[in-house]
Design brief:
Number of domains: 1
Strand order of the largest sheet: 4-5-6-7-9-8-10
Helix content: 25-40%
Bound molecules: fe (ii) ion
Strand content: 15-25%
Shape: globular
Length: about 350
């Protein structure tokens, strides 16, 4: 009897020891990949609208494309709370999900928020928990502690990757923290919000920062990301078009500075589409890729006009991949919108 109980105790100790070794080894294997500013980006994957409470099944398909970088475009979780313990628990749920943990151990990640991970649907500068919410976003993204983005208000950030001649500047705009209030539109207007002709999306400090970043940048490709769509103006939901002067200000800034190869990214809409617009300073129209709906798309299709759309919209769950061919002159781009099984829904090639 005594020998038996001693044996049991030893067995339990051994199992604990083996458990510790195994979780230590696992944590070594699944350590998040840090950002590497020297790396040439050839494949950038991105997406948005990822409900942490739903199955995280899309990650292996994204990984099949061997992305050099993943960009979160907002609604990275559905926080929707002013209670930061709840927000933190929701981030934690995604962070420990095995599929995301494995993905994170293979691919560096940057990102910006939209409304649901900011904390409130269609939220703006009046959201009371925005400062703490930003810290939780940055903790989740593992924004390097030395980044100046930690020390300022708002979540806007910039990163540079690759050597001279193959340099990519990633600019992540915060369209929530400083955004002015929108008033509801009349019911028969076909819009949710009245155009705000005087208010701001970015706020002056972010505008000044953006102009400086673009002016000083010597990068060869400029990825400019915003949670909400920039180019499309017709749909009823949130968009830069709800602040027509802010939208025009951004396009005018591109015309004024003419950064090389600008590519706009956005999310939020639970659908994917490519939009393009002709602006002064560029021979060819500049592109915006909207990739949204990693865990939920549109349940049924509906007509949604977008005079700037190129090709078809994709209402199924999706992510997108941007391939950069540095060997071509001028640099050539290909965007692919892909689904949960990595199936290709839509692709487009271009160069500027
Ligand atoms: Fe959103």
């Amino acid at each position: 009897m005594f020998i038996n109980s001693l044996f049991k105790k030893k067995l339990v100790l051994w199992l604990c020891f083996l458990g510790c070794i195994s979780s230590f080894a696992q944590s070594k294997i699944e350590r998040p990949v840090p950002l590497n500013p020297n790396k040439t980006l050839q494949t950038i994957a991105f997406g948005s609208c990822n409900n942490q409470a739903k199955k995280q099944v899309i990650w292996p398909s994204i990984l099949k494309n061997q992305p050099d970088l993943w960009i979160w475009l907002g609604d990275n979780i559905y926080g929707d709370t002013e209670d930061m313990r709840v927000m933190s628990a929701k981030y934690q749920r995604l962070k420990v999900a095995s599929a995301y943990r494995f993905f994170r151990s293979k691919c560096p990640v940057v990102g910006i928020w939209d409304d649901h991970d900011f904390g409130v649907n269609d939220g703006c500068k009046t959201y009371p928990a925005k400062a703490r919410s930003k810290e939780l976003l940055f903790d989740f993204l593992e924004v390097p502690k030395e980044s100046p983005a930690w020390r300022r208000s708002g979540a806007y950030q910039t990163y540079t990757f690759g050597p001279r001649g193959k340099r990519v500047r990633v600019i992540l705009l915060d369209a929530r923290y400083f955004r002015d209030i929108l008033q509801p539109a009349p019911k028969d207007s076909g819009q949710r919000y009245k155009p705000n002709e005087t208010g701001t999306i970015l706020g002056e400090s972010q505008w000044t920062w953006l102009e400086k970043i673009l002016t000083e940048s010597k990068a060869d490709v400029h990825i400019i990301a915003s949670g909400i769509q920039i180019i499309p103006t017709q749909h009823e939901y949130e968009k830069w078009g709800n602040f027509p002067k802010e939208r025009q200000r951004l396009l005018n800034l591109l015309t004024k500075i003419c950064p090389s190869n600008p590519i706009l990214l956005s999310g939020d809409r639970h659908m994917a589409e490519v939009s393009e617009i002709t602006i002064d300073g560029y021979k060819n129209p500049i592109k915006e890729i909207t990739a949204s709906g990693m865990t939920h798309g549109w349940p049924v299709d509906r007509k949604e006009p977008n005079q700037y759309r190129v090709g078809e919209k994709v209402i199924e769950k999706n992510f997108a991949v941007l391939n950069i061919d540095w060997e071509q002159s001028p640099v050539a781009f290909e965007v692919e919108v892909r689904g949960v099984e990595n199936q290709l829904y839509h692709s487009l090639k271009w160069s500027y």
